[in-house]
Amino acid sequence: MQQSINQEKNSLITPEKKKIVLKNKIQKKVQKVKRGIIAIQNTKNNTIINFTDLLGRTIFSLSAGALGFRNSRKATSHAATMVAQRVALKAFQLGYRKVDVKLKGLGFSKRTALNTIARSKLHVVSLYEQTPIPHNGCRPPKKRRT
Question: Gene3D superfamilies from the xrefs (predicted)?
């Protein structure tokens, strides 16, 4: 008696329904999060930020001069903040969510650009310092007399 009830229950669930259930499980896909590289090059006169994919192909590039800052205003920390905000916004609009940040140069506004990117919607995965430091290489330029 017990076996006949179990057989009736099993006959109610047809093999076709099982396949549909399995198909629904298979069709779920894992979304990949887009990841890019932000390279901040900071000089004493300008801030240039380059956005690339993981293979190093440039997607877009921005500088303080491209945003309308001229002459000595390009070197300010405010200009670096504006460039970093624009890069973070554009990267987010392109679908990037995670970034690696590479820093290069001895400018003082490097820190503000990095803080701006960290406060944006992008998740900073890693941080690289690529500033070239000479081991007693070329002689530096003479001091400025005012």
Answer: Ribosomal protein S11 (3.30.420.80)
